[in-house]
Amino acid sequence: MTTASSTLTSSNPADPSDVLLRMLTPGAFAAADAVEGARAAQPGWLHAGAAARSAALGAVAAALDEAAGELAALAVREVGKPLTEARAEIARAAAIWRYYAQAPYEAVGAVHEPGAGSGLLLTRRRPHGVAGLITPWNFPFAIPSWKAAPALAAGNAVVLKPAPEATACAQRLAEIVHRSVPAGVFTVLPGGATEGNALVSAADVVSFTGSTPVGQGVARTATARGIPVQAEMGGLNAAIVLPDADIEQAAGHIAAAIAGYAGQKCTATGRVIAVGAALRPLREALAEALRTLPVGDPSDPATVCGPLIGERARDHAAEAWRGLSVLAGGTVPPGPGWYAAPTLVEKVSPGHRLLREEVFGPLAALLPADDLAHAVGIANSAPYGLVTSVHTADLSTALGALDALDTGMIRINAPTTGVDFHLPFGGTKASSHGPREQGRAALEFYTSSRTYTLSPA
C-alpha cells in the first residue's frame, strides 16, 4: 500500500514479513513526464508500420511463454495467486499479446460511394495518442496485457499505472515489453492515487479497472476533459440454480467461483440463488464443496483458495459474515498470512450489505427463489450487473433467462469466473462505464473514427 509518507511497499500476502520492494512514489510530475515521453515516442511507433508492431507484440508473447515459470512464481509471491491459477494467467497473457499481434494488419476503415457525383468517402480509425492504463493487483499480468496489447497494436503509446500491491509484476512485464518496443512506447508508472489522478489528467485515452468509487471518479475526470474512458469496476455476481440442474456439477462450479483466488475477482460469485426444490440439495452440496476446497499456501499447485491481499481485506471479509447463519467456513485461520475460510451464509435479510456491496473475499449468500422469474428479479436487484451464471438442463429455460438478466455477461452451466479474451468484456449499472474491453471492441476503443470526403478538383 502507499503510506502518507509516499512510500510504496509490496509484501507477500502469504508471509507479510517477505517484502518484495519498498520505494518512494514518483509523484504527479513524474506522471506528466511519463505521458510527455510517451507522446514524443508515439508517432514513430505508429509510422513504423503494421509489420513492426505485429512483430513486436508477437515477440512479447514469445517472451512471456519463455519466462512463464518465473512470472507465475512472482505472481504467487507478490499477490498470493494460487500457482495453478498463476500459470494459467501467464499463458493467457501470452495468448492475448499473440492475438493482438495480428491486429495491425486488419483494415482500419472503409471506402464508400458518395450520395451524388464523383469522388470517394472514406472512414478511417486512428490512434488517440497516449493510453493511460490503471490496473488492479488481482490479475497482475493479464489485465495490463489486455489493455496494453490492443492499445499498442492500434499505434498508441502506453503509460501503465499498476496497483501498488502488484508493482513488482508490472515492472517485470515492462522489462519484457521493453525488449521489443522503442523507448518511451511502454512506460510503467508506480504509485498510488496521486500518480493515478495525474495520469488521468494527462493521457489521451484512459482505461481503468478497480473499485467502483475510484472508477467513477476516473470516469468523471476523463469525461470532463472530453477524452475516451472505460472503467471496469465491481461485481456482485449471481449464480442461479434450477431444480433440473446437475446439482453436484453446479456446486463444484459455484464453489470455485466463490473461493478461487480467495474470491478476489470481479467475476466471483457473491450470491447463489436456488430455485424451488434445488435449495435443499444445493445447500448441502455447496457447503460440502466449500468445506473440502483446498485452502493454504499459494505456491502449492493443489491450492484453490490462498490468502487475501492484505490484513484489511481479510478483516473486511470476516466482518461481512459476522452475525449471519453460516453453513460453511466463517473462520479466520491463524497466521502468518491473510487467510479466510471459504464461507457460505444463509437467511440474509434483503437490506444486508452482502446483497448490495462487493466484499471481494471467499464469501457468498445462499438465497431461495420461488421460480425463475423470482430468481431473475433477485439477481437484477443488485446495483452491479457484470456476470450471471445459470445452471439448468433445459436449453429453453436458459434461453428464456438470457434477455431478462441485466448483466453484461451470462454463462450457462459454467462458473461466473472465466471469460474469453477475444470477446467483449463488461457489465451494466455500477459494474462498467464506457465501451467494452477485449476482443475487437478494445481496438475500437483505442482508436477514433474519421470520415474523409475526396472530391475531384
Can you describe this structure?
The chain is of the alpha/beta class. 38% of the residues lie in helices and 22% in strands. The chain is built from 14 helices and 20 strands. The strands form 5 sheets. Strands 12-13-14-11-10-16-17 form a 7-stranded mixed sheet, sandwiched between helices. The radius of gyration is 23 Å and the shape is globular. The relative contact order is 0.14.
- Summed up, the helix count is 14
Kindly estimate the percentage of residues that lie in beta strands according to DSSP: 15-25%
Helix % is 25-40%
Question: Average pLDDT, to the nearest integer?
Answer: 96
Strand order of the largest sheet: 12-13-14-11-10-16-17
What can be said about this structure in brief?
With 457 residues, the chain is α/β, with parallel strands linked by helices. 38% of the residues lie in helices and 22% in strands.
Q: Tags for this entry?
A:
457 residues, alpha/beta, seven-stranded mixed β-sheet, six-stranded mixed β-sheet, 14 helices, globular
Write the layout of secondary structure elements.
Blueprint: E1 7-12, E2 15-24, H1 28-47, H2 50-66, H3 68-79, H4 83-100, E3 109-112, E4 120-127, E5 130-135, H5 142-153, E6 157-162, H6 167-178, E7 186-188, H7 193-200, E8 205-209, H8 212-225, E9 229-232, E10 237-241, H9 247-259, E11 269-275, H10 279-292, H11 311-321, E12 325-328, E13 343-346, E14 363-369, H12 372-380, E15 384-385, E16 387-391, H13 395-402, E17 409-412, E18 428-429, E19 432-433, H14 439-445, E20 447-454
Parallel strand pairs: 5-6, 5-8, 6-7, 8-9, 10-11, 10-16, 11-14, 13-14, 16-17
Antiparallel strand pairs: 1-2, 3-4, 4-20, 9-19, 12-13, 15-18
Helix pairs in contact: 1-7, 2-4, 3-4, 4-5, 9-10
